[in-house]
Amino acid sequence: MAAATAALLLTACASQPTGPDPVQQRFSELEERVARVDRIVDNQSLVQLEQRIELQQAQLRELNGRIDELQNANEQLKRQQRDLYADLDQRIKAAPAPTAQQEPASLVATPVVAQATGDEQQQYTRAFDLLKNGDYAAAVSAFKQQAVSFPTGALADNTQYWLGEAYYVMRDYPAAAAAFEKVIAGWPSSRKLADAQLKLGFTQFEQKRLAQARATLQQVVTRFPGTDAAKLAAERLSKIPADAR
Description:
Blueprint: H1 2-15, H2 22-94, H3 118-132, H4 136-149, H5 156-169, H6 173-186, H7 193-206, H8 210-223, H9 228-237
């Protein structure tokens, strides 16, 4: 009996396969595939993350560059504004609240300078004081009202000139140019003529109308040699390229 049992056990052992378990082998293959897929996904995620980081860094560099440009432009604008205020302040100090006797309206075909009326002088002085105090918008309104009230008054050319200066310091260059042009056309012998033509050239320069600015400033140099206006015109001319249009 014992011999028979031993023989059966030997037979059973001999009948079992000696190779790897196919189920286990299949499971291992699936595990390897899953691992490869995980590695691919991880690699793609890292690549995408790196790309996003590089894009954000590029955008940050661009933003920083733009900020630098804006800061530089702002500083330049501040310097230009300070120059405008300084120039206007210097001109105001050089001509404090002129009266009709100090600043004649015109010397064309008349041996006697016209006298400003009390109302004209009072209104003009009020507008000029606003300009001196830096209230440029109010000065514009006051000088415009002065021009309407006394279009042919003894101080009409001064009114137009300082109106142009107020517009200029406010960077309303079209309005400033119109005011200066009106002085040049309407009062060809005014004491404000050289300054009006100079500031018209400056205004054209700011408007990038460089060819016109060059012609206007050259006229100042030619017509008013030796004056402060001519010197300032020459300085600005040096900043205009010869081939400017």
